[in-house]
């Protein structure tokens, strides 16, 4: 990002995307290793886990299924899902930590390498984990309301209530298109805050909420596009690779599956880069100057480097 901090507030969505895509050129080897070691396993797991769960679900739904094997199949399904969620959670936070730390290092002209990024991850991971726990509480409340909406829709279908059906439909659409997208934007920005500022958990969520003011339309659009891309990729993968055995040959499914994993890797990498750049855009929009020296020292603290006592790592209302 060669622009002055005060100029970042004027970036539009195409500009944000352009800036994000150009960042890996500053340290191609580092981003290549991050992509291979962290983002690729994450993307592969997101798509490939259905290959393991689909046969089990099909067997459970089959009328010819042996009842004596049902407990074993359910246990296997739950174990796979549990391992998948742990893997997804871990690599999602690891990828976020690695990309945000690397982008910030480039922004402050700090030497960048894959080894330094990996060395910083343990301390960054702890902060992201605490923030994730707070976001999980918010997501739990959201999912509870979403389930109530589904129950209303089921009741409306059973009772043939047109009014209740459309009411439940509107509730579900609002929850997904507004609440879900907003919570996702809040989470992504809070993750960046947790890495780059001396706050995390609820404080990071509060900071994220403040930063989103005035830029929520941008955030909503970016998150919606990201979720849509992921949904389309997952849908095609499910239709062709998972359920397309009778219509597509093995070679065709392998090629298409590999291509879709590659596309998802790119989408996830760009998404992580965008959320990093968007943080600086929001800071600039609210005229919160970013002290690059303080940020440089803050990043060095993750690596066990000496941090001057005069630096409070406070990155608000400072002149660059």
TrEMBL record:
The keyword Transmembrane helix applies. Keywords: Membrane, Transmembrane, Transmembrane helix. It comes from the Eukaryota. It comes from Acacia crassicarpa. This is Polyadenylate-binding protein 1-B-binding protein. The chain crosses the membrane at residues 31-54, 74-107, 128-157, 163-196, 216-242, 254-282. The lineage of its organism: Eukaryota, Viridiplantae, Streptophyta, Embryophyta, Tracheophyta.
């Amino acid at each position: 990002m060669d622009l002055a901090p005060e100029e970042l507030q004027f970036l539009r969505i195409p500009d944000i995307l352009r800036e994000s895509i150009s960042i890996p050129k500053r340290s191609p080897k580092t981003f290549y290793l991050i992509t291979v070691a962290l983002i690729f396993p994450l993307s592969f797991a997101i798509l490939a886990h259905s290959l393991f769960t689909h046969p089990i679900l099909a067997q459970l739904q089959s009328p010819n299924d042996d009842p004596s094997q049902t407990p074993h199949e359910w246990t296997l399904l739950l174990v796979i899902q549990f391992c998948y969620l742990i893997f997804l959670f871990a690599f999602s936070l690891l990828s976020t930590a690695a990309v945000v730390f690397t982008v910030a290092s480039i922004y402050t002209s700090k030497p960048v390498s894959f080894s330094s990024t990996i060395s910083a991850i343990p301390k960054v991971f702890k902060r992201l984990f605490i923030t994730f726990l707070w976001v999980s509480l918010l997501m739990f409340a959201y999912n509870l309301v979403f389930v109530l909406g589904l129950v209303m829709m089921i009741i409306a279908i059973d009772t043939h209530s047109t009014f209740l059906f459309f009411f439940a439909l509107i509730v579900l659409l609002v929850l997904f298109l507004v609440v879900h997208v907003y919570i996702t934007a809040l989470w992504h920005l809070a993750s960046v805050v947790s890495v780059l500022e001396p706050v995390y958990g609820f404080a990071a969520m509060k900071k994220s909420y403040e930063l989103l003011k005035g830029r929520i339309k941008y955030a909503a659009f970016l998150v919606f596009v990201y979720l849509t891309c992921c949904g389309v990729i997952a849908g095609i993968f499910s239709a062709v690779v998972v359920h397309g055995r009778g219509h597509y040959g093995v070679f065709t499914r392998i090629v298409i599956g590999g291509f879709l994993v590659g596309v998802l890797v790119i989408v996830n990498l760009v998404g992580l880069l965008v959320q990093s750049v968007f943080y600086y855009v929001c800071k600039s929009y609210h005229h919160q100057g970013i002290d690059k020296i303080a940020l440089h020292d803050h990043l060095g603290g993750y690596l066990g480097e000496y941090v001057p006592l005069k630096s409070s790592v406070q990155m608000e209302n400072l002149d660059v």
